Amino acid sequence: MKRYYQPEIECAPYEQIKAWQDERLVKQVKNVYENNTYYRKLMEEKGVTPDDIQSTEDLHKLPFLTKADLREAYPYGLMSRPLRDCVRIQSTSGTTGRRVVAFYTQHDLDLWEECCARAIVAAGGTKDDVCQVCYGYGLFTGGPGLNGGSHKVGCLTLPMSSGNTERQIQFMRDLGSTILCCTPSYAAYIGETLHEMGFTTDDIRLKAGIFGAEPWTEEMRRDIEKSLGIKAYDIYGLTEISGPGVSFECEEQTGMHINEDHFIAEIIDPETGEVLPEGSKGELVFTSITKEAFPLLRYRTRDICILKREKCSCGRTHIKMTKPMGRSDDMLIIRGVNVFPSQIEAVLLKQGYAPNYQILVDRVNNTDTLDINVELTSEQFTKYSEDDTTLKKNLTDALKTMLGIRPKIHLLPPKSITRSEGKAVRVIDKRKLID
Ligand code: ADP
Ligand code: ZN
Questions:
Q1: Which of 96, 121, 228, 260 has the fewest CB neighbours in a 10 Å radius?
Q2: How much is the pLDDT for 404?
């Protein structure tokens, strides 16, 4: 049986979605122009007034907002409501620099939590489920977002936050958790710990996982699904636009439906800013059409992906985005070649390694160097030594084929690389420390 949290919205015909977007965009642009001096100035500089925006076809006329704008306007400059109407502040994780803050009215919290509720129901969640949330709670949006969504669905919610992995597993077993929400790297760690504690998937009742907040590969998905005996669903979001639940995966697992009644998505060429036709790969841009306190128009996410509007077997009609392959600023340029950490992860997992690795980039004598620390699994470690030349050569060759450059591989004993309980830090780029 197919289930939706808000079927009349999630399965609305495209014409209806477009009508909502047109009407809400016009209203939101007026609202922001009247209430937000920062964005009004950007519009004036571009020579655009609210009258120029009559439908989504006019969206491209509006100026972009970037993370630099958010930092410049920090903390209150991009609000469109007085502070006294707001009830919550959240902040980004600061993965790529200074944190930025976002504000929410009660209405904004409700719509954010509803988006998370849609994701939980799409993963099979009902009132009968026990939903264990081990995203971090606090300023980070992961914990509060999924917690709110879980309440809205009516699941029994276990607000574990991250960390203390053995206790996570004890509660998971004692209370029969059926849905797990956390970052994919933490899900992998929980799976690893479960087996180390001598348990198997028969000892837990988990059926689904809702994992996001960082890039992860299909290979990693299969690994986690096997180790926890679940179906693993992707969820995407960013604090600036609300938090997790901007888009979420359905059972088809072929991309994430964007909640288009709240957010208009565009793909642009990150170099020129030109809007690209559907199906092109580029930078994802969001316009928030229903938020009150902190509605951003044409916010550049720096996440690189593809949008596709096609019939989905789940019955949902909202457009889908592919898994972001990383942010434009995650991309490493090594000896002139573009390298995404996710490409390295895909090769490692295909070759039978666990997702425990670290990418080290440096510059020696004016030449970029790429070293990859790769942990051996316990099974590999009983069979091979850390300096097994064949293992190293096979891995180096496979990476050379994928990336176009030859990395230096260092095999390490199991447990050498610190596990992540939140967003994993995979890359250490020492060149940045020099510049
Ligand atoms: P920060 O930008 O400081 O990490 P956030 O915690 O708001 O702050 O994280 C949002 C970012 O996390 C997104 O822009 C995206 O790069 C990444 N992200 C979130 N969900 C996913 C996902 N499912 N897949 C890949 N990346 C994701
Ligand atoms: Zn679907």
A1: 96
A2: 94
Q: Tokens for 328?
A: 């434009």
pLDDT per position as a tens digit, 46-68: 999 999 999 999 999 999 999 99
User: Which is nearest to 294 in space by CA: 235, 241, 371?
Assistant: 241
User: Average pLDDT, stretch 336-355?
Assistant: 93
Q: 1-327 — its CATH code?
A: 3.40.50.12780
- Residue spans of the domains in the chain: they are 1-327, 332-434
Among the listed residues 186, 147, 180, 143, the one whose alpha carbon sits nearest the alpha carbon of residue 161: 143
Q: Is the pLDDT of residue 407 over 70?
A: yes
Question: How many Å lie between the centroid of ligand 2 and the Cα of residue 316?
Answer: 5
pTM, 2 dp: 0.95
Q: Which class is domain 332-434?
A: alpha beta
* Cβ of 328 less than 6 Å from ligand 1: no
- Cβ contacts of residue 317 below 8 Å, gap of 6+? 10, 11, 12, 13, 14, 17
Confidence label for 136 from pLDDT (cuts 50, 70 and 90): very high
